[in-house]
């Protein structure tokens, strides 16, 4: 068996098995806690503008979702944003982009400090996005699928006028599509890239492109995945698509097709890129430096490719 990038998340057959989310508290309108208090007996924290800090990496697709949703909904003033360095060292995500290499609000150098403060015994991988409570320094959640849904459904009193309804009243079709896209595409590219066995890699590869083929067909007659309205599922697919040719095609060996070779998916991704909150939150430099420098078992030289030219997204 070849050496894994993340040993604890590699199965015996060489399959990549993503770790679970350790912190699953929720910021909810239903919380019985008063402003300034901690979670209630059901783990629900109060909705309180100015209290929480969303910690992200601009390189990370899971974190990028939260950045886009926060911007679309107009929550910039309600929820603070902290951006970590795209290059992790042995202690994890670093605040080296800030003066003094510390987050100016949380006062910490590494996101792992907030993780350990919340759970001193935690020994898993420190991940973004994470929402940290600025009053206690504790991690509220790193449950990335729920974070964006809650921004839509629990923070409605603080949305900007005219904010899109990203979560439809009837979620059944969207939730099924979200699950399929997560399994085969969002996480599928990682199952390709982090596989340490040929069979595991090929199974993930086949599932990835089978799903992309279906999505290509689906987008033949509609602007968005669920029709004429932008939804949460579009954001989740976009953050993988925008990284596809720059990273996943080569670095993760997802090389049957480039995104630019799927006519409908490419046109769809470019339409999204033109929307406020999408293209303006994409940082190809940070994306490429994170993947090609941090994953030293996959790219031991640490060389970052010059291409592709990001101008193709605007042409």
Automatic annotation (TrEMBL):
Keywords: Transferase. The record marks 248, 291 as: Lowers pKa of active site Cys. The keyword Transferase applies. This is Glutathione S-transferase family protein. GO terms for molecular function: glutathione transferase activity. Residues 167-291 form the GST C-terminal domain. Residues 1-46 are annotated as: Disordered. GO terms for cellular component: cytoplasm. InterPro entries: Glutathione-S-Trfase_C-like, Glutathione-S-Trfase_C_sf, Glutathione_S-Trfase, Glutathione_S-Trfase_N, GST_Omega-like_C, GST_Omega/GSH, Thioredoxin-like_sf. PROSITE patterns: GST_CTER. Glutathione binds at residues 93, 125-128. It holds the Pfam family GST_C_2. It comes from Kribbella sandramycini. The active site is at 60 (nucleophile), 190 (proton donor/acceptor).
